[in-house]
Amino acid sequence: MNKSIVRRRAFYIMMSGALAIAVAGLGGALRAQAPTAAETTEMSDASLLEGFRHTEVASVSDAMEQLMGKRMYMSHRMQPIFNSRFAGFALTIRLKKEENNNPNALSGMLAAIDQGSANSVWVMVVDDGADIAGMGGLMGTAMSSRNYSGAVIDGGVRDVAHLRKIGFPVFATGIVPSTSVSHYRFAGANMAVVCDGVPVNPGDIVVADSDGVAVVPKAKAADVLAMAQQMDFKEHSMYAYIEKYKSIVEAVKKFGRL
Fold it and tell me: Would you say 238 and 78 are in contact if contact means Cβ atoms under 8 Å apart?
């Protein structure tokens, strides 16, 4: 066989092997860099929360009314213990009214706190609890240490001086000095509840600011956020327009937002 042909064949074989090694190495690198499903979900959740934290609750509420045709905001009774803004994933709790002498009646509530994590929002329903403190300084300190986003209580809150001192945000229907100990029993965690008239499921996104509290169903969160951000942009653009032209009528005509 011609020597030049032999050399060419050897060269092709060598190049084919090198190419195969390079492709295999590139594939391994791509596999190493590609995010897992869990990582992708985590990034998506983080992105959603970051978006909601910079979007006004009024716009979120309006977006849900347009997209879902129903009210998903809590009433005027739900008030903050200090001006605050947060967004996080609902960790739901219910306390059932029941007079008892059982020292473990609320143990499940305490265990639920310790199971929560960063970005959790403690959503507690205290049955007939307008004059009962569902949480206070000890529980708030535990939540703060676990980096909860905040708490929303369909019932009362106490130890507000301490909660303000540590900067842990709480919305509640009242401030009262009473205790739930011996008057209530833990009825369950991570269950569907109705908090101040709004259905809340575990993992729903709870958003709060000086205008109040709204609950975004997780499955609708991306669509709600996109529309709410558009509404925010229009409204913030309108302020300067109204000041310049001194006409809210013309601003609404131009931007279509009220």
Answer: no
Yes or no: say if 184 and 105 are a contact pair by the CB < 8 Å rule: yes
User: Is 30 within a domain?
Assistant: no
In a domain, 53, yes or no: no
Residue 164 covered by a domain: yes
Listed in sequence order, the residues at least 6 apart from 93 whose beta carbon sits closer than 8 Å to its beta carbon are 109, 112, 122, 123, 124, 125, 186, 188, 189, 193
CB-based burial, 125-145: b 16+ in 10 Å, e otherwise: bbeebeebbbbbbebbebbbe
Question: What range defines the domain where residue 151 resides?
Answer: 74-218
Q: How many domains does the chain have?
A: 1
Residues facing 96 on adjacent strands: 185
Q: What is the CATH number of the domain that holds 172?
A: 3.50.30.40
Q: What percent of the chain has pLDDT over 90?
A: 73
Confidence at 258, pLDDT banded by 50, 70, 90: low
Q: Does residue 220 or residue 250 have the better pLDDT?
A: 220
Query: Average pLDDT in the 184-204 region?
Result: 98
CA atoms within 13 A on the CB side of 117: 1
* pLDDT, greater one: 107 or 252: 107
Percent above pLDDT 70 for the chain: 83
